[in-house]
Amino acid sequence: MPQFLEHSMTSWHGQQLLHQHSLVDQFDPRARILAMTLFALATVFSHNLLIPAIALCLSIGVALRANLDMQRTLRRVLAMDVFIVLMIVMLPLTTPGDALFHVFGFAASQQGFVQAMMIALKTNAVVLMLLALLGTLEATTLGHALARLRVPEKLVHLMLFTVRYLEVIGREYKRMRKAMKARAFQPRANWHTWRSIGYLVGMLLIRSLERSERTYAAMKCRGFNGRLYLLDRAVWRRCDNLLLLAAVGFVLLALWVSVGVSVNDVSMNE
Amino acid sequence: MHIVDGALSDSVVLGGVLLTACGVAYGLKQIDAEKIPQTGILSATFFIASLIHIPLGPASVHLILNGLLGLTLGWAAFPALFIALLLQAVFFGYGGFVVLGVNVFNIALPAILMGLLCRHGVMRSQPRTAALWGAFAGGGAILLTALLVASSLALSGEAFIPAAKLVLISHLPVVVMEALLTGAAVLLIRRVRPDFFGEVRDD
Hints:
The complex is a heterodimer. Chain A is mainly alpha-helical. Chain A has 2 domains: 140 residues, no CATH class; 66 residues, no CATH class. In chain A, strands 1-2 form a two-stranded antiparallel ribbon. Chain A is flat. The relative contact order of chain A is 0.14. Chain B is mainly alpha-helical. Chain B has one domain: Arp2/3 complex 21 kDa subunit ARPC3 (Orthogonal Bundle). Chain B has a two-stranded antiparallel sheet with strand order 1-2. The radius of gyration of chain B is 16 Å and the shape is globular. At the A-B interface, helix 1, helix 3, helix 4, helix 6 and helix 7 of A face helix 1, helix 2, strand 1, strand 2 and helix 4 of B.
């Protein structure tokens, strides 16, 4: 896969990427999480083409208003589409049903085609909305908002620690890779590469354990007793109610459409 | 490896959410509040390690290392992987949102099983034997994960069975690679810091 299409999952920039302030940022993080959850549930559990299509339009709209980095977002969405395209292309051929057209003697069924369309719409709608509504938050803000939504405190602390040390460990990893490069290491598909990377991972883990001992000692010395305090002031405002209301409206629409579709099915069968 | 939103049937998605919720809750119970800094820093390390891309044939694959994760963190692997996949989904757009439950379960359950199975061998035997146990854990975890991913696809409908087979076959080279790599990592850890696995988790 060419590098530009590959997932940008080669390094962690969660906190450093500059994001222009936009319309989306005026909403409270809690409202964004709740709205995202409702939107995703309604989209994923719908069984018709209409709701996923509306969902995709909505998420494109939100993504445009969120001032996302166009290039980066497109790269991510495209990478995911390449990832699922194989499965989607096979679906019409493997689903039994009325033949729509033939490829190399295999019948492509209408049902399979509809299902493939549905998956593509749902996937893109959810990921785009996710990047626009939650991807624009800082990872720490996301953690605090989750805590305010009664997610178990331990889980949130674990997340905040992970996020904090991703940068530190990431730098450590890059330093070690640089040292390997200086010794002419080039990753290939051979035993030498696997052993070297295995040693790298092992060393990284040992160094992290030692780092965590130092961190823990420093925290202990400042009176750490297993409890962390979240200091943030999130204010729930009127526009947050509106966002939530819009999400609930979308869920109701999805319910209404699905009831309508099943009634139609019944009347068609009769 | 990650399944996207919209592909699986409703019951599989809901089952994944439920199982992952239970796993995360149990995993959190196992973490001592004072161990949170250590667990957090180690899960950050595994996150960074999963960003390493290694050339394999015409493409390149990224590491998963769930076998080593299970050996190191035990049940804490569940919350650690939940956080890692949540961050990947939200900030990289990798995977999906509702399907997160299935994805976490598919990677975390093999981690925990292999951790329970091989932990004793990795901790108690000589470094070279420990490396063999490590390789078994590393390879076995990926194989189990591939099986779980394939079965979540297969359970979602007859039409997905070819895709499920494809997932299984395409992961066989990754099984070999992760086995060797995990073995090497365990060998180094046991030589440099013999009591590493015991220090992280005392049981």
